[in-house]
Design brief:
InterPro entries: AAA+_ATPase, ABC1_TM_dom, ABC1_TM_sf, ABC_CydC/D, ABC_transporter-like_ATP-bd, ABC_transporter-like_CS, P-loop_NTPase, Type_1_exporter. Its main location: membrane. Keywords: ATP-binding, Membrane, Nucleotide-binding, Transmembrane, Transmembrane helix. This is Thiol reductant ABC exporter subunit CydC. Helices cover 63% and strands 10% of the residues. By secondary structure, the protein is an alpha/beta fold. The protein has 2 domains: 321 residues, ABC transporter transmembrane region fold, CATH 1.20.1560.10; 235 residues, 3-Layer(aba) Sandwich (Rossmann fold), CATH 3.40.50. The strands form 3 sheets. Strands 6-9-10-3-11-12 form a 6-stranded mixed sheet, with helices on both faces. Helix 2 runs antiparallel to helix 3 and helix 7 packs antiparallel against helix 8. The longest helix is centred in the middle third of the chain and has 53 residues. The protein is elongated and about 115 Å long.
Length: 573
């Protein structure tokens, strides 16, 4: 319920629309009771042939109540739905504000299909919280209590019957069905998340599945997931229909009890017979307000589960979120030193240390290469420097400022970063380059393309979604051009030219080192050629720093780096 309390806070922000919804909901409910009660009284009174003016007054009241009921129902729908849409808007903004700083690391924990199901499906489910959970019970109680107070003037026993009916249909029956609803709703959401995940993976992996002739099996798996989801939805629908049927049955039984008790009271002379039809009509009508309570357990559990799934995405990262709110910022135009002191890091859900007791000092303006076999922790180290992940223990400093106290946005703003996977948006070459900076002229963009050997591209050439029409080397060179155009003083490059041929790579690095002459540069690479120009080489394996030093010192030492270099020579000679 803690997550649902967050939704509740967003709901009560719309006080005006909430109060108006409750007011007009009460008016619509009480006028409906009055309308049918007056109709019952009119029928009974007309049978006694009263004066004409009496009938005219009662008929006028009936017409007035009908008119007020229609207007109130419309106003109640208008204000309640307006409040709902505004609440959903607040909910999306609030969730995005919490999710956005965590976005780089959140994808390592959640599969994209499941994350999409939470962000879209669970937010949409919460639209029923105000309409079906929050204010219907309030309106129900107010209308019922007002009706019971009115009924007391005619018969205390009938009023007590109505009160008992309120407790059974409004609370007892919904509570009993709510207990079973939890398990059903949990299964529905899990199956929906599974279906979204299978669908996303089929779309993303369609080409590979087709190549390896596994498409039929994946389709069968998707069909099975869809069937399971439909089965759970059917269970949910049957359960809701059964709840509604039980509630309706209890309401009718109460009305029959009111009728029987009213007849008894009339025969005993304790109730004027002209009011019997009115009381029966009131009992039939007032229980219409309990109809929303039949589906109350469904929507309550649906909202509780949706809020739990939604906010669990950001709840597990509260510590990270607090660090993101830090106020310290990097000064632009400076080349900072970097210090790592006793840094340990483990990926969530893993026991193995990804980084173990890493100590490293990188001077301002230095050029550092980090090398080592796959899985040695090179990319993980860069993720920590970019605050995509946070250290378990130890400390990282950028200049003299602890990384934990730096604003994430400030760090990224002052960094030219190229990761192993770089995203390219549907549009043109120009639009993808302007991500670096908005104030760049076409001449600057064309010069950057020339530096990375992409001058055969036109700025208006199209780029498909995820750069589908670009080769792996072209994507890396376009990413390098973006980094060069950004022109900040801290470079963090993760395998930036792994898919580029040796001659082009050499030309790119020549331009890179010329531009980053006085900047701090960190380069992760599997290739050991061309590292002679680096000020420092850090060799990693199994999350530990095995050795570090200049190229010449490491070769003279004939240690781990020397062995790697000899292996590379034997492979490529």
């Amino acid at each position: 319920m803690k997550d649902l309390a967050i939704v509740m806070k967003l709901v009560v922000r719309e006080k005006r629309d909430i109060l108006l919804s409750i007011l007009f909901g009460f008016l619509a409910g009480i006028t409906a009771v009055g309308l049918f009660g007056a109709s019952g009284y009119l029928v009974s009174k007309a049978a006694l042939i009263p004066p004409l003016y009496t009938l005219i007054v009662v008929v006028s009241i009936v017409k007035l109540l009908g008119f007020v009921r229609a207007i109130s129902r419309y106003a109640e729908r208008y204000f309640s739905h307006r409040a709902t849409f505004t609440i959903l808007s607040h909910l999306r903004v609030s969730f995005y504000e919490k999710l956005e700083p965590l976005a780089p690391g959140i994808f390592q924990k959640y599969r994209s299909g499941d994350l999409l199901a939470r962000i879209v499906g669970d937010v949409e489910s919460l639209q029923n919280f105000f309409l079906r959970v929050f204010y219907p019970p309030i309106v129900l109680v107010i209308v019922f209590l007002s009706t019971i107070v009115f009924t007391v003037f005619y018969s205390i026993s009938i009023a007590l019957v109505l009160l008992g009916g309120l407790l059974i249909t409004g609370f007892v029956v919904p509570y009993l069905f709510a207990l079973r609803q939890r398990g059903i709703d949990a299964q529905v959401r899990e199956e929906r998340g599974s279906l979204s995940t299978e669908t996303t993976e089929l779309l993303y992996g369609f080409r590979d599945l087709k190549i390896y002739q596994k498409l039929a099996g994946k389709k069968a798996q998707l069909k099975q997931s869809s069937d399971h989801y439909i089965q759970e939805q059917e269970k949910e629908g049957i359960h809701a229909s059964f709840s509604h049927a039980i509630n309706t049955m209890v309401s009718l039984i109460v009305s029959w009890v009111v009728l029987a008790l009213g007849v008894y009271l009339v025969t005993e002379g304790k109730l004027d017979g002209v009011f019997l039809a009115m009381l029966v009509m009131i009992s039939l009508t007032v229980f219409e307000n309990t109809t929303p309570m039949a589906v109350f357990p469904l929507h309550l559990e649906d909202s509780r589960r949706a809020s739990n799934r939604l906010f669990s995405v950001v709840r597990d990262h509260d510590g990270v979120a607090e660090q993101v709110k830090s106020s310290n910022q990097l000064q632009r135009g400076q080349a900072y030193s970097i210090d790592l002191r006793h840094v340990n890091f483990t990926f969530p859900g893993e026991a193995r240390l990804a980084l173990e007791c890493v100590n490293l000092h990188l001077s301002a303006g230095s050029k550092t290469a980090i090398v080592g076999p796959s899985g040695s922790g090179k990319s993980t180290l860069l993720q920590l420097l970019l605050k995509v992940q946070t250290v378990d223990t130890g400390e990282i400093r950028i200049g003299k400022t602890p990384l934990a106290s730096l604003e994430q946005e400030s760090l990224w703003h002052n960094t030219n970063a190229i990761l192993q996977e770089n995203h390219f948006f549907y549009g043109t070459i120009r639009e993808n380059l302007l991500i670096a900076r908005d104030d760049l002229a076409d001449e600057q963009l064309e010069a950057a393309l020339a530096q990375v050997d992409l001058d055969h591209f036109n700025l208006l050439d199209p780029v498909l979604e995820k750069g589908a029409n670009l080769s792996g080397g072209e994507k890396q060179r376009l990413a390098m051009a973006r980094a060069m155009l950004k022109g900040e003083r801290l470079w963090i490059l993760d395998e930036p030219t792994s898919s580029v041929d040796a001659l082009t790579e050499k030309a790119i690095y020549r331009h890179l080192f010329k531009q980053a002459k006085d900047d701090t540069l960190i380069l992760v690479s599997h290739r050991l050629t061309g590292l002679e120009k680096m000020d420092n080489i850090v060799v990693m394996e199994h999350g530990k720093i095995m050795e570090e030093g200049t190229f010449d010192k490491l070769m003279e030492k004939q240690g781990y780096f020397y062995e790697m270099k000899q292996i590379e020579k034997s492979v490529f000679m």
